[in-house]
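Note to self: keep these together.
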Amino acid sequence: MSRTSGILLHPTSLPGPHGIGTLGSEATRFAGFLASTGQTWWQMLPVGPTGYGDSPYQSPSTFAGNPLLIDLDMLVGEGLIPAGHIDPPPPFPAASVDFGAVIPWKSEILAKVARDFPTAGAHLGDAFEAFREQHGSAWLDDFALFTALKRRHELRPWWEWEKALVRRRPRSLTAARRRWHDAITAVEIEQFLFEVQFQTIRATCHAQGVRLVGDVPIFVAHDSSDVWANPDLFYLDEEGLPTVVAGVPPDYFSATGQRWGNPLYRWDRHMESGFEWWTRRMDRAFHLFDLVRVDHFRGFAASWHIPAEQPTAEFGQWVEAPGSELFDHLTSVFGPLPVIAEDLGVITDDVVALRDRYGFPGMKILQFGFGTESHHALSEFRPNVVAFTGTHDNDTSRGWLDDPAPDRIPERSLALETLEEGGDGFVWDLIRAVMASVADTAMIPMQDVLGLGTEARMNTPATTSGNWGWRFTWDQLTPELVERLRTITERTGRAGNAGEEG
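Structure:
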């Protein structure tokens, strides 16, 4: 973590003709943009299949990849889709993802790819079998069966299936694998294609001195293969329903807190297994990414346990978690862990001690530093942090400045008084402050590079609609902006210092 910088952009936000950003040529072009401006890091949100509200943080698998990220033009190039089969695409919007339109259209195409794969993909047969062998018992077998069963149950949650499947009776699972063999294989093919394309773009980035930052949510979705396949690792009742759920108490994001609804871990069971599930999970994360941001790091010191019947997160209790034991084990397996600790929210001394024990860099959000969260002020930055203007949960910096809310008035006044004006606008003053700070790593959301307002916000916490859909277009990234970013990266000593191969 020497002095470097990067851009936060989820791949779904990339341009492209097929309604959603993918891992194809537009990702390659974006990697070139990062390299040309001296960036070392491309930070993504979780890349798993999306769940409720199209959120990447509510995925049906913490191991699997999102099939929507598969690039169709690359499949044409591999001979897996006949030329012209996907042209012309429907008139998808260029500046947003219409998930309701994209998902059925793309799913139908991928289903046909899977049906034709035994012949059209014969040249990939050995690689496909190697992929199944490598990942099958670790996660692929469970996820493929789970997905096939979920599709056969009209996407109903797993706890509403037949009791024998809910409770994973061996005879029922064997019968299901036999009956739904083709559907299971189709899921495996989708995951194989994701893996090939993701590793291709990762290699492309590495060749240009760019590394990938991933995101591992601490908790997993209730309606997921992770919980279905490992119910003993979570607080569930006999019907498979959570008895307590995850969230955070009231904070600066929400007056009633955030009730995420994820089932909580039975840490005693994880410890008894030698953290076997966590070892597989982090192994998968390190297989995809060079550096991993662990979301809600404070949950490894203690988690906010909300009784499942409570409608908000206002009522709950903090319950300790064995973070030291977990990270001691993971360090013994992987060596020094390439982890960023997302240490936002209610941070206590035990969280700080856990973070610092392993030398994990924390996070600083400059937008917060002008409000009540004074520990995010520039004067509180230190080298071993990753500094942001804002994250995917914040408004864009332009939106934050333009927000008419009364409590924004003193924050804006302080920001305008504090920042050194560079003559190119407030947003770039914020970017310059983060880039020039003592933080080893600076990370800028792409929306701020483009100077966009609230319309480009990625997510508003504690809301369930209207999120995750923003996309940019290449005409927004003018030569002037590219030159400005390159210049500020070079002048602040962050230009590609850690990006050389090896």
